[in-house]
Amino acid sequence: MSNPIITTGGMLSSHYLEVTFMGVRYSGAQASGTAVKRCNFEKITGVLLSPAHELSFQIGKEIFRIPTKPDDPKHQAAIAALIAGLQRSVA
Amino acid sequence: MEIFCPECLGALVITEGDRARCTVHGGFYRVLFRRITPSATNSPIPLESVTATTTHAGSAMPPPLPIIPPLPETAARSAAVYCARHPSTTATARCDSCGTLMCANCNLILDGNTHVCPACAAAWSEAPNAKRPASVIWSLAFAGWCTVGLVALLVAASMTKLDIEQGGKLVRGLCTFGIIVPAIAGFALGLNAIKRREKTSALAWVATLWNGILLLILLLALVMGFSMQAR
User: Fold this and answer.
1) Extended strands (E) in B50-124
2) Are A40 and A19 in contact (CB under 8 A)?
3) Do B107 and A81 touch (CB under 8 A)?
4) SS3 of B121, please?
5) Mutating which of B35, B41, B86 best tests the A interface, going by the most A Cβ atoms within 10 A?
6) pTM score, whole prediction
């Protein structure tokens, strides 16, 4: 079973978020630089969704964002898996 | 743990249910998850109500989230916050020292999970290390000791016509462990006090150069002694 993944890309940016059993792997590339993060669910302190369906998660004092599509079942599955993993880490 | 606004890194307040509003630019967000820490037990959002998503056991694809209705867009929301050094890059963190907004590239993480901007990191590295003054003092002490020892040895040699061969192991031992080893130690400590890209005091330079000159003199003396012995 493959891990739920969110991938979005454009002319100047591309984002990748993979939700594994242990945590997330994130990569956000922009024209000016790339941010790569890999962490466990325990380190994620908050997850927000903006009105423009941009998912953001906070690790410590860092915030990582990735655009999502509300009508894409893969994106919604990844978000659900992320939240489920976070709830699992709390329990 | 406080949650920050993803756009301007301002503080978020919970308005109703699982919605949060940024106190800086007024944007609204849906809180999908918020880790409750002991210090945040007075949070208005209980964990159970944060999200309605659960995975079904054995199901490869969890059920999709309900589509969130669009929230009112404020005029200020469109003003995204950018990195102070890279105006075209959105900021992802705030400097713990000066509060400057910074992107992922500018976000330097120091020991203790401290996030600082490059300017603060440079200022931090210029601050003298607590161990360095001790190194300088010891380096100076070794330099002084070696100078006294070298001068005493030269004076004794000139006044009593001291012959190294006649003096035997005692003189060689005194030269080696009394002067050469301390000079090497002082030189190493002086070099330790001088760090690249860090502010170095003049005393550190003096101690290092002093020990270096002493080492050079001793090496020259050794070479001359060996060459004379070979004849």
Assistant:
1) 93-94, 101-102, 108-110, 114-116
2) no
3) no
4) helix
5) B35
6) 0.47
Q: What is the pLDDT of residues B113-165, one digit of tens each?
A: 677 788 877 766 554 454 567 778 888 888 898 888 888 877 877 776 655 55
Nearest to B34 among A46, A54, A77 (CB): A46
Does A19 lie at the interface with B, CB-CB under 8 angstroms?
no
ipTM of the complex, rounded to two decimals: 0.91
The verdict on a CB contact (< 8 Å) between A28 and B104 is: yes
Structure tokens at A84: 């489920």
What does DSSP assign to residue B65?
Answer: P
Residue of A32, A65, A74, A82 to mutate, testing the B interface (most B Cβ within 10 Å of its Cβ): A32
Residues in chain A: 91
Contact state of B64 with A77 under an 8 Å Cβ cutoff: yes
pLDDT digits (tens, 9 = 90+) for B65-121: 444 444 444 433 444 678 888 888 888 888 877 888 888 878 877 655 677 788 877
What are phi and psi for residue A46, nearest 5 degrees?
-165, 150
Q: Which token pair is B106?
A: 């500018």
Residue A10: burial class (beta carbons within 10 Å; 0-12, 13-18, 19+): exposed
Give the span between the Cα atoms of B199 and B201, in whole angstroms. Answer: 7
Residue type, A54: E
Provide the shortest C-alpha distance from residue B10 to chain A (in Å).
Answer: 12
